[in-house]
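lol ok so funny story. i was supposed to be doing the assay writeup but got distracted and ended up predicting the structure for this chain instead. priorities right. anyway since i did it might as well share w the group, maybe its usefull for someone
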Amino acid sequence: MKTRIGLITFLVVIGLTATSLLSLIGCGSSSTVAPSQSGPTYPLEINLVDKAGQYTLDSRGQLKSTVQLSSADGRIGVFMYSGTKVLDKNSQPLQNIKATVDYQPPLLPENTDIIGLVYDLTPVGAQFSPAFQITVTYSPEELPAGASEADLYVASYQNGEWNTIRYKKVDTANHKITTTIDRGSKIAVLLPLQEQTASTPVATPSAPANPNAIKVVVAGYMSHGPLKPTVDAIKGVLAKYGDKVAVTWVDLGTKDGAAYFKQNGLSAHMNVIINGSYTYEVNGKKVTFQWFEGQQWTKADLDAVLSNLVSKQ
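and the output, tada:
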């Protein structure tokens, strides 16, 4: 009888021990923690013209939060979802993204006009996956008469050429257009123009032709909104000299104008060429009459050059 009780006790103890061991093994298994996926993080600064935001990327270059940022003037904004990969050209987490205004953009595709500003999104080679949203505002006053806001689209400039971005959303109520981009590039809001078949530009002096007149060629986008103040400034100065200047107006927005630019190696969107040159010395400094008045040249500079040449006639 004692032997049977002892055997039963032994088996019970063995059973408890096995159960305890299995329990310990089970507890050990359930407390095992998977390797951490967080890893190091990297700071990312996004600067839109004059306003910056600070964000964080994980070890794979993915945003740890959503990005919604606009420039101080509200003319350009970006939106990126949390988890978007933001990488440099070597597929490493990017440190900064910068959007600046390009005041000397490349020539446009034929029969198009820029509406608003051109932005340069750098660095070149930056990659975004998925593509993020970028919104640009425009002024309807810049559109030529009869043009429709619905025809606006966004193009990116890469590898020496403009390419239309397929996705667009035009908000005509707030005058904004949204698209998506997946890499660093120049971007611009463009408007297709009806093909113009004007004949080769002809000299159009503001007064009867004068054989001794100073020859002036004004070549550029004549109807482009941002350049209108420059065109007006040029016209204002030329009007002072009457038949002492013979002016040829070359509109880059025309087929013949584009051909003229190509033949003469011009790339600036506005050029004032006086007796075959657009570079003159004014008050001891070299002045180049290209691009916007008020930047690298002024109407006072143009007036000074023409006054000097006319005085020598």
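The CA atoms of residues 282 and 305 lie 7 Å apart. The helical segments are 2-30, 228-238, 255-264, 299-311.
back to the writeup now i swear
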